[in-house]
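Tokenised fold entry reproduced for everyone:
>
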Amino acid sequence: MAGTHQIWALLLDCGRLPKKSELKKGTCLRFAGSGNEENRNNAYPHKAGFAQPSGLSLASEDPWSCLFVADSESSTVRTVSLKDGAVKHLIGGERDPTNLFAFGDIDGVGINAKLQHPLGVTWDKKRNLLYVADSYNHKIKVVDPKTKSCTTLAGTGDASNVIGSSFTESTFNEPGGLCIGENGQLLYVADTNNHQIKVMDLETKTISVLPVFMSENATVDGPFLVEKQKTVPILPKSAPAIRLPPVAASPGQTLQFKLRLDFPSGTKLTEGAPSCWFLTAKGNEWLLQGQIPSGEIESISSQPTIQLQIPADCLSPEAVISISVLLYYCSMDGSACMMKGISFSQPLQITHAQGCTAPVELKYVF
């Protein structure tokens, strides 16, 4: 549980955890970690502190009987005992549990070894070795837990994509995950920024790329849709609902709705957040056939004009179209960010006489 700096357990059958009474199947609970973001080891698992633990590997056999943990923000590898829950240091970091900046790229023993943001670990029970995806150093490290010795297995430290004649001549780009094959010969590496799975043969010391093929008839995660149906956002219950005066419109006519949203001074739209508008017509869905039902709101100073063309074949002389907006905005210094939803309901009176041609202004003052 990287976000809460803890290790949790899900009971797939009835059983018990260290220092716990009998637990029922399906129980999910905290196993280790106080929730404080720290590099704190402790004989009591709930008093230990992790810092964004991101990778786990199980060594259930004696004498190990532990979980290996890639504790990314403290740049350490830790162990959690399966017998008594004790959390112990293996490699990396430093002795001050509050210092999360003791990172580097140094082969060594125990605390003298340095990692930088390790994300993955996998246990090789055939050789009694632990492999570590040392993500920000762009390397794969190998650790002997008996001696606490950590050395570089593969990678030069350059963030690139070179498959050399040996492990140490090859390169990675933020490797993030590891898995070892059942017979212990092949080590699979999720080479994240190269968008590849690399395969390390631990016996021949060669590296290759796992080929991924897809036949013409293959489907991935269900059938491929030519046009994916967009999900209509749900406005918060606190969103004000503004009912506009009815307007007259004729079949084939294009109505225009101009957003006039008066934001608080000193605010801006949140960069990267999907502020948008969208149309709905509950009970009158025929109004939206062939229309552009949604769009983005990219600027406070240049707010969009939304168009709705009345279908030539009208199924009702009266209808209601809803124009909703969902906004994400922040103060200029980024110290506070808000979300706001607004819904405008526009009754329509459809007649063959010429209807309203002026844009309808959708005004709202925050």
Observations:
- The mean pLDDT is 91.
- The first strand starts at residue 7 and ends at 10.
